[in-house]
């Protein structure tokens, strides 16, 4: 029997204060493409979460006192180890999350890029000197780590959403309690094993595997020791966590749901727009917060655009992500498949037309058919809710003003996309869109150097980029008098 490609990275214990530990209870991690059981991990609760917070608190003084160059060196070694183990991590990700292996490899590289970036940024935490209001004073600012950080991460990017939060926190000199999604704890544990190998001291990063999200979240948010919560997930849960953090006035970074418009004007390069929508809609089988949720297409080009998109979708290989040539993997679980189907059914009942539905789905696993709907209206649920599945829904618009109004008609404001060759329109529309990120003739907007984050109910703060580390730092103002 051949060993699994991720055997060396598989950990089935949680990690607190530098120790791998079992739990009295466990839960099963399954492969969404096959239903097979991959692992059993501890189902930790409130007491273990308190222990993890205490470990992070105890480790804080030494970690924040370390010169930035030394913290940077640990992060750099972690980065090297992630890349050295990229194939194993990708295979593990495909097994627990379902995304095609090629995409999983891409995510490992994407995730590692945050570790490299923040290893560099650790050394550039500069303060200011400020012109003083009188001659006998000198004013300056320093930036200091905020303290113990709680990070709650989602299942759709089991590596990158961890590194995008944990790497800047560690770079800044904070210590971390991480609660990964119960759907995908294995990548979190594998990353942690690599961080340990890189020389991260005990207590600096602690991982609580748990299915008791509410109980763990309550302890993390109630704790006065935890000074910052960083969360990626649904808007509903984000709002609850935000309310829970009020009691201790914690700093918050929230990366919540989106309802991205993908606007195609009649002067757009249609080849480019089709290429863009294939990525923006179908990456990770449509399960990203920045996936195009509403395709707004100008009336005159709509039939041609829909025909070309349906042709491209017909060529998809919908299969187990581990099969090598899969382009669309399964959704994360059965509930996700039902939710997507209910949005499609609702739209069809309200008058939308099905232009294409992929005919070949694997028999087992949580697969959802890539589907193209036209005739969608803003009142339909599918235009208001995050689809999180491989369903493209097209709404028609007449002119620029209507496109902007439709695009902004949502409480979400994460990513938007815009395709046009008119330079004036490009700036007018990009500036009018109420979103944190706008892809213009390009939908590959995610990387470590650009600031990722939303406005309105899509969240608070920015991840990655030169701004990302500030989310884990406090500015302290020093006023020197009597000089
Ligand atoms: C997300 O879906 O939350 C993250 C997507 C990305 O980083 O591109």
TrEMBL record:
<dbReference type="Pfam" id="PF00171">
    <property type="entry name" value="Aldedh"/>
</dbReference>
<dbReference type="InterPro" id="IPR016162">
    <property type="entry name" value="Ald_DH_N"/>
</dbReference>
<dbReference type="InterPro" id="IPR016163">
    <property type="entry name" value="Ald_DH_C"/>
</dbReference>
<dbReference type="InterPro" id="IPR015590">
    <property type="entry name" value="Aldehyde_DH_dom"/>
</dbReference>
<keyword id="KW-0560">Oxidoreductase</keyword>
<dbReference type="InterPro" id="IPR010102">
    <property type="entry name" value="Succ_semiAld_DH"/>
</dbReference>
<dbReference type="InterPro" id="IPR016161">
    <property type="entry name" value="Ald_DH/histidinol_DH"/>
</dbReference>
<dbReference type="InterPro" id="IPR029510">
    <property type="entry name" value="Ald_DH_CS_GLU"/>
</dbReference>
<feature type="active site">
    <location>
        <position position="255"/>
    </location>
</feature>
<comment type="similarity">
    <text>Belongs to the aldehyde dehydrogenase family.</text>
</comment>
<dbReference type="InterPro" id="IPR016160">
    <property type="entry name" value="Ald_DH_CS_CYS"/>
</dbReference>
<protein>
    <submittedName>
        <fullName>NAD-dependent succinate-semialdehyde dehydrogenase</fullName>
    </submittedName>
</protein>
<dbReference type="InterPro" id="IPR050740">
    <property type="entry name" value="Aldehyde_DH_Superfamily"/>
</dbReference>
<feature type="domain" description="Aldehyde dehydrogenase">
    <location>
        <begin position="20"/>
        <end position="477"/>
    </location>
</feature>
